[in-house]
Amino acid sequence: MKKICYFVTILILALLLILVCLIKGRQSVQTESETAAVEVAAGANGEYIKWVDFNITYEALCAAYDLDVNSYDAPVHLNWIELLAYVGAKEGGTFGKKSVSLLEKLASELSEGKTTMAELTEDMKYYKYYYEAYEAVLGGMVGEYEIEQETEDGGRQWKKVYGLKAFSPIAKGFEYTDYDDFGSSRSYGYKRPHLGHDMMGQIGTPIIAIESGYVEALGWNQYGGWRIGIRSFDGKRYYYYAHLRQNFPYALELKEGSVVTAGDVIGYMGHTGYSTKENTNNIETVHLHWGMQLIFDESQKEGNNEIWIDCYALTRFLYKNRSLTEKNQETKEWFRHFNMKDPAVENYQKKAQKTPPSAPSDPSQAQRYPDVLSSAFPVRIDKLPLDQKA
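The chain above was modelled as a monomer; its predicted structure follows.
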């Protein structure tokens, strides 16, 4: 009898030990997962975000965008950035094969009124971080705007639409090759990672303003050659276009302070750079280098705290909207074929009239595109799917 009691006691102790090990193991996994999330969102604990890993896939961008546009006039209008931030917070910033299904399930629950985004994210520790981070990247790319479209008789008419109002940096009809080269090594001047995206093409290919904004930098940089830096109106995005064409790098009227509309031609592809001497072709391969810097605080603009994101998936996404251009045979300059009225431009110019901006606006833009100041929108709003190109 004593032996039986002894064995039962040993068995119970063994089972308790196994149970304790299982609990500890689960806690360890949870701790590791939470630590990873904390590392991703490390900047959220400071006064402003200090680091962003933009890992949203092309497929997730397309799915979230379609859900947003298709629900524009529905009782529940889905916000693509909110959808993406939810998946980002749920998956620790990782977008895998199930990301699209997660987006679709979330959209279904919200559309059917089963829940709200506020209810779903109330206890999500890092949702606010991911929303702020993704909004900084994508905030100016979707909305209402007005654009010229060709009529059946060959004329043009203005049409108000809701959809993608950001453009590919390469004009329609000009082909290029690219791959995900973010973070690859560069050695000119000093060893450093590649903080942008290269698009290889032909000399003179028109380079397009991805988003509306104002020219913050224009001129020579020994690393980027002839380059343009355009700041979004909300100040969160700095678009960097580099290695522009020798002798004729920019749109003729472009200068620091110029206001540009998404889809405008701003410059031409080349291979300048890697030299302290201006106008030098030292880059072996003709290409456009474009990069997006995120700025949550002005101290991040230059120095050791800069935030540059991987733009490969975003470049694929923007290919859906390419600006058609035409050439002025006298000046050899290219211009967009269909003009666009972006409310963001109008709002910025109105504010500029009241409060002079740090970078003065370019009056020549208003002369070239006088309709951009018009506020008379038609009543009808059409949703713009990704396959409809301007």
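The chain has nine helices and 17 strands.
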